[in-house]
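Human:
I keep going back and forth on a fold encoding question. Comparing notes only helps if you start from a blank page. Show me how you would write down a chain together with its backbone fold. Write it directly below this note and I will take it from there.

Assistant:
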Amino acid sequence: MRLVLQEFLSLDGVSQGPGAPDEDTSDGFTQGGWFVPHLDEAFERLAGTWLERADAFLFGRRTYLNFARDWPKMTEHPSAAILNGLPKYVASHSLTRADWNPTTILSGDIPAQVAELKQQPGRELQIHGSARLGQSLLAAGLIDELRLAIAPVVVGTGRRLFPDGGAPAGLRLLSNETTPGGLTIVVYESTGLPEYGTYGAAEG
């Protein structure tokens, strides 16, 4: 399976708490819900087509608990059958039970276990949110594709998908588009380490 990271970002790269003021208030974050004003039907249709490519999901603990709380109740939503029915994996060193079935808890050497999951037959193993997990797997060279929905807002504070000191990564643009709500949707393929060069013609 291809490992695909799907992430909501602000223009300044914040990924924390896009969906609601109380979604993730860790480290005193008070700017939650910044993505919601820019949602529209065009993006929801696109996100639905992405979801249809999944054969399994991978979450960090915090995102998993939020999804496990909400999605079993949303049975009328067109995406509910996919999210509730497909295999789910949660990377956590603290969870001892996971009741959103079918779910498997991964602990210990997470990158090694994810590498094994990628060897299973299927189309996409999708990470939704879970930025810190995404960062670690990008650093390990395991992310095959990034789908980023960038909102036209500068949050100014909060946890970022690409923090200072993160691992370098080369990417190749596969597609980009905008939605009526102002979202910029960019899809990248991982290409390994970045390439470097010098601007301008070399002398001599």
Observations:
- Residues 41-51 form the longest helix (11 residues).
- The chain has five helices and eight strands.
- The chain has a mean pLDDT of 94.
